[in-house]
User: Which sequence fits this backbone?
């Protein structure tokens, strides 16, 4: 990935990636299921920590599923130990309840402490494009502040927690997510949302996150991704 350069991606790196031991969090969600599906398809080994293991029934024999509390650092640490990296599609279920107003921040606090204790440094996190203050088309930050102020505040707090950690994090910030199929064709821009970045499929976000996990040039970078 090159700094501040908008790039098109088309299946780049699909076959070249080394096999990794990955923990997927939020594995039962829209992006999470795609992370699991694509990671095993590419030969990675996957462990998922979830609150509802039944939702991963389709992958039963192909991944390791642990049931537990994703906000509990000790449980996260046990699961993460011995892995190469963590991929997170974790986030509040929509519509966001009052109880989940600070969920992303709580998750970030638990995960950063668990990873430090487990000695695992690499993490790729799905955040939100609403945090791009300089995006004009679409006016992501303005829209976010107007329509989803709680999400903007919580996602900002989450990113701050990772930024203040010593971990090797990458923030993937997509605009509106869709359930359209994987295309492998999407735009990526470091530090900015690509222009006219209105939507992206969860499958393509997952593709980006899996590709970038083994890419050291993306460490401590925020990346806009869109179709
Ligand atoms: N919706 C959008 O258009 C949009 C746009 C940009 C970015 N994002 C962000 O992208 C991320 C992924 O979105 P998505 O729509 O693919 O995800 P999603 O389908 O809403 O799935 C969320 C995942 O987080 C898990 N989760 C939520 N609360 C939990 C809790 N208290 N304890 C344990 N697990 C919990 C869910 O587990 P269960 O299956 O057990 O509920 C699920 O696995 C989110 O952070 C979201 O904010 C969304």
Assistant:
């Amino acid at each position: 990935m090159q700094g501040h350069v908008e790039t098109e991606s088309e299946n780049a790196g699909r076959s070249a990636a080394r096999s990794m031991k990955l923990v997927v969090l939020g594995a039962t969600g829209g992006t999470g299921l795609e992370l699991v599906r694509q990671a095993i398809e590419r030969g990675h080994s996957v462990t998922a920590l979830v609150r509802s293991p039944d939702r991963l029934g389709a992958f039963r024999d192909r991944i390791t599923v642990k049931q537990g509390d994703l906000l509990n650092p000790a449980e996260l640490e046990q699961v993460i130990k011995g892995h190469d990296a963590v991929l997170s599609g974790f986030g509040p279920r929509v519509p966001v309840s009052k109880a989940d107003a600070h969920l992303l921040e709580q998750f970030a606090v638990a995960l950063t402490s668990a990873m430090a204790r487990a000695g695992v440094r690499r993490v790729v996190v799905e955040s939100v494009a609403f945090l791009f203050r300089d995006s004009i088309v679409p006016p992501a930050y303005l829209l976010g502040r107007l329509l989803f102020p709680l999400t903007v505040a919580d996602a900002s707090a989450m990113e701050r927690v990772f930024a203040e950690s010593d971990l090797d994090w990458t923030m993937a910030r997509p605009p509106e997510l869709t359930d359209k199929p994987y295309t492998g064709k999407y735009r990526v821009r470091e530090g900015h949302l690509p222009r006219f970045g209105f939507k992206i499929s969860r499958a393509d976000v997952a593709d980006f996150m899996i590709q970038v996990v083994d890419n050291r040039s993306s460490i401590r970078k925020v990346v806009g991704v869109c179709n």
